[in-house]
Amino acid sequence: QVQPVESGGGSVQPGGSLRLSCTAPGFTSYNCAVQWYRQAAGKQREWVSSINTGGTTSYALSVKGRFTISKDKAEDTVYLQMDSLKPEDTAMYSCAIPGPCGIWRRGAWGQGTQVTVSS
């Protein structure tokens, strides 16, 4: 089974920006939704943002107005543009395909990419 692959994480100062990518070959063809989650050290995983098959987006209150989710159908990639980053945004960010969709009968998770916001 093909797993989504995240990239784009790194270290940035407060107020900075990062763009995360989630690539999952086929998710556009299968018309799947994609979600972003994050998990900070010692905390539970929390939902961050979603984009559904029709392109409708949704955001957690903690990131609304600062993060933007989008997708590039040609590249089978979903992006999470993160602006005005805060130290509390520090976490491992993972993308997920909710199942069942296409080849992902039970959904799928990526390995994650670390985002660290500190001065």
Summarize the structure in words:
It is globular, with a radius of gyration of 14 Å. The model has no long low-confidence stretch (mean pLDDT 95). It has strands at residues 5-7, 10-12, 18-23, 34-39, 46-51, 57-59, 67-72, 77-82, 91-97, 108-109, 113-117. Strand 4 (34-39) and strand 5 form a beta hairpin. Helices cover 0% and strands 45% of the residues. With 119 residues, the protein is an all-beta fold. Strands 2, 4, 5, 6, 9, 10 and 11 form a 7-stranded mixed beta sheet that branches.
Summarize the structure.
With 119 residues, this protein is mainly beta. The protein has no helices and eleven strands.
Topology:
Blueprint: E1 5-7, E2 10-12, E3 18-23, E4 34-39, E5 46-51, E6 57-59, E7 67-72, E8 77-82, E9 91-97, E10 108-109, E11 113-117
Parallel strand pairs: 2-11
Antiparallel strand pairs: 1-3, 3-8, 4-5, 4-9, 5-6, 7-8, 9-10, 9-11
Distance between the ends = 40 Å
Q: Could you describe the largest sheet, including whether it forms a barrel?
A: 7 strands, mixed
Helix content: under 10%
Order of helices and strands: EEEEEEEEEEE
Global shape = globular
- Give the tally of β-strands: 11
CA-atom Rg in angstroms: 14 Å
Helix/strand/pairing class, anyone? mainly beta
Helical region count?
A: 0
Averaged pLDDT:
95
Which parts are unreliable, with pLDDT below 50 for 5 consecutive residues or more? none
Instruction: Bin the strand percentage.
Output: 35-45%
